[in-house]
Design goal:
The complex is a heterodimer of chains A (275) and B (359). Chain A has 275 residues and is mainly α. Chain A has helices spanning 2-31, 53-61, 64-95, 101-107, 116-130, 136-160, 164-172, 177-206, 209-214, 223-231, 239-272. Chain A is built from eleven helices and no strands. The two termini of chain A are 46 Å apart. The chains are: A mainly alpha (275), B alpha+beta (359). The A-B interface holds A 163, 165-166, 168-176, 179, 183-184, 187-188 and B 47, 50-52, 71-74, 77-79, 81-83, 85, 87-89, 98-99, 102-103, 146. The complex binds adenosine-5'-triphosphate and magnesium ion. Adenosine-5'-triphosphate (ATP) is lined by residues 13, 16, 18, 36, 38-44, 192 of chain B.
Chain lengths: 275, 359
């Protein structure tokens, strides 16, 4: 009886996994099928011939690598800026007493009350006015504006779990404020910092709307808009290339989930704690 | 030398006042306890001395130096926190070495000092462990070790024993006394456990609601409490109070009368006569109380008596027959009575005669 229940449960669990994973599997399979096999009816599940030609085409004949570089620079840049600012900001919100501290923490979330579509045009005009429009830097700035509030809250709830006494002990032991922060607070906050970095990185990696509006040269286009621009037009969709591009775009995220998923779930947990 | 002086120190958190003007001089080498109920400002006092909190008013000095503006690391004091505050990501050895490292001591010397401190506290075998792999008592010793490796002017300890079980607490108490004796350093010890304060201290600062009530030796605090708060806070079960008036040299309460000669005038007419449970003798005497509650605890029995509406606690030997509702004859030791002003609560120095039966 117990055995039957276990088997039933496993069947159920795996069928859910299969359902969710099917589009991904289909994506990978499609990317290695030759073009002529794609629209065969009935469709083949496993490719009759496996080919990597689409990957080579993308890498050698299109600006794909340039987009990849842009995406990496933007995602890493955003993550770096957001983490540095959010870590120090969260520390301040948790540790120092000043009037309006709670208000400030709440105010920060107001950004999310407005849909991004409303924000993106003023932001574009602002970029033009400042003179950084159409650059990688403009996207880093834009992504920071919407990743920072969330990162601040996430890190704040992580840091609220660090006892005040630890920092006080370090101060009494002869550390300066900055040393106490580096020696004691940072190591304690590290899991929080890692999961916040992952969230920020994923957010920046997948962003589409801001990239579409703020940037229109290949020099600064990230993968999301670059690939769309290159492979999807009103007349034609390059399915094979699109699938190959999607596989390569997913790789960094797959790696993150494979190796660091425990940090991500910890991040979800901390976010759930009332701040 | 390096006396610690609080003068006129006030501390307010917003509108809440944690400390109302504290004046306190702790002599170099002294073991002083700050004793009082929860929320009376003990930790606040200690944190201000450590430099973790700034006085709203007044000055704190260590030696001849006013330290109000000196950051914690430059005050030359070591502190043991109630939560121990061990650095979770560092091993025991790294925890103990941290204050030395921050003071720029060379590695070799650091290691000898850590070894020596670990030796004193029997931590030798645990040096490579992380704090979470230690028992409460071991963590507490590491926290002490982190204070001991340095050679500070004073050690500040905030209820260091409160998280330990009774047996370990008694053991650590003895070790702390021994440590103080061998180091000869100033210890400022926060506790709300009067037994700890009484057994360990040279002097006790009894505090209540942000006000220093009395600063004196344990003996003095017990035998001559400065006011009714100290009188009832020190001693367990706490001191009994009979409210009455003084007329013709006799204090009278509906259940007892005692001849009293105050050594000074100027007190009010409503007075409190204080008698500790251990200062009442049972079985014979001019006073009669009705037995209400009997609480045997093995080596003695605590009895609550009713004296004309005043509830009085006494200690009885374990084999004494005690029927609830029956009447027990008692006497008070007249040399060990206390008199207080019922309004101000202040002690009134007085001499007492033998108790008389009620009128
Ligand atoms: N950071 C703070 N903000 C506001 N009020 C505070 C703060 N720290 C302490 N207080 C208040 O100051 C008073 C004294 O607190 P303190 O911590 O010194 O008490 P304590 O004597 O150490 O008590 P306990 O025995 O419970 O540790 C309390 O009423 C407390 O609520
Ligand atoms: Mg306290």
């Amino acid at each position: 009886m117990k055995m039957v229940r276990r088997v039933a449960f496993n069947l159920f669990a795996w069928s859910v996994v299969g359902l969710v994973a099917f589009p991904l599997i289909w994506m990978v399979i499609t990317s290695v099928k030759p073009q002529f096999e794609l629209f065969r009816i009935p469709p083949t599940f496993l490719p009759e011939t496996v080919t990597f030609e689409h990957y080579w085409t993308l890498i050698y004949d299109t600006p794909f690598l340039k987009y990849m570089r842009n995406s990496l620079l933007i995602a890493f840049g955003t993550t770096l800026v957001v983490i540095v600012v959010a870590t120090l900001g969260a520390h301040s919100l948790v540790r120092f007493r000043y009037p309006g501290r709670e208000r400030l923490a709440q105010l920060v979330l107001f950004t999310y009350l407005l849909p991004s579509v409303v924000l993106v045009l003023p932001l574009y005009l602002l970029m033009v006015w400042v003179g950084i429009a159409n650059s990688l830097f403009s996207l880093v700035v834009a992504y920071t504006t919407f990743a920072l509030p969330y990162a601040l809250w996430l890190l704040r709830s992580f840091m609220q779990g660090i006892p005040d006494d630890l920092e006080a002990a370090a101060l009494v032991d002869g550390a300066t404020r900055m040393e106490a922060f580096i020696d004691v607070i940072l190591p304690q906050a590290l899991p929080g910092i890692i999961s916040t970095s992952l969230f920020t990185f994923i957010l920046a990696w997948n962003e589409y709307l801001f990239a579409l509006v703020l940037v229109n040269t290949d020099e600064a286009r990230p993968l999301t808009t670059g690939v769309m621009n290159m492979l999807i037009s009103s007349f034609n969709i390059e399915w094979s290339l699109l699938m190959a591009a999607s596989v390569m775009m997913s790789l960094p995220l797959v790696i993150i989930f494979a190796f660091l998923s425990s940090y991500l779930t910890r991040g979800f947990g901390a976010g759930g704690v009332k701040g | 030398m390096s006396d610690i002086v609080f003068s006129g120190v006030r501390k307010a958190f917003g509108s809440a006042i944690a400390l109302h003007g504290l004046d306190l001089t702790i002599r170099s080498g002294e073991f002083v306890s700050l004793l009082g109920p929860s929320g009376c400002g003990k930790t606040t006092t200690l944190r201000m001395l450590a430099g973790l909190e700034f006085p709203t008013q007044g000055t704190i000095s260590i030696g001849s130096r006013v330290v109000n503006d000196v950051p914690p690391g430059k005050r030359d004091i070591a502190m043991v926190f109630q939560s121990y505050a061990l650095y979770p990501h560092m091993s025991v050895a790294e925890n103990i070495a941290y204050p030395l490292k921050k003071r720029g001591m060379p590695r070799a010397e650091r290691e000898t000092r850590v070894k020596a401190a670990a030796e004193t506290l029997q931590l030798g075998a645990l040096l490579q462990r992380k704090p979470r792999q230690l028992s409460g008592g071991q963590q507490q010793r590491v926290a002490l070790g982190r204070a001991l490796v340095r050679d500070p002017v004073a050690f500040l300890l905030d209820e260091p024993l409160s998280n330990l079980d009774a047996k370990l607490r008694a053991h650590m108490r003895a070790e702390l006394i021994e440590l103080h004796r061998s180091l000869g350093k100033t210890f400022v010890y926060v506790t709300h456990d009067q037994l700890e304060a009484m057994t360990m201290s040279d002097r006790i600062a009894v505090m209540n609601e942000g006000v220093l009530q009395q600063f004196a030796t344990p003996k003095e605090v017990y035998e001559a409490p400065a006011n009714t708060f100290v009188a009832t806070f020190i001693g367990s079960p706490s001191m009994n109070m009979f409210e009455g008036a003084l007329a013709d040299g006799v204090f009278s309460h509906p259940a007892l009368r005692v001849p009293v000669t105050p050594e000074a005038s100027g007190h009010g007419s409503r007075l409190l006569l204080g008698v500790r449970p251990e200062d009442m003798t049972l079985g014979a005497g001019p006073l009669n109380g009705t037995i209400r509650v009997v609480e045997p605890s093995g080596h003695e029995t605590i009895v609550l008596l009713d004296f004309a509406g005043t509830t009085v606690t006494v200690r009885a030997p374990p084999d004494m027959p005690l029927g609830i509702g029956s009447v027990l004859a008692c006497d008070v030791k007249s040399s060990r009575l206390h008199l207080f002003d019922a309004v101000s609560g202040l002690r009134i120095a007085a001499r007492f005669g033998a108790a008389l039966p009620p009128a």
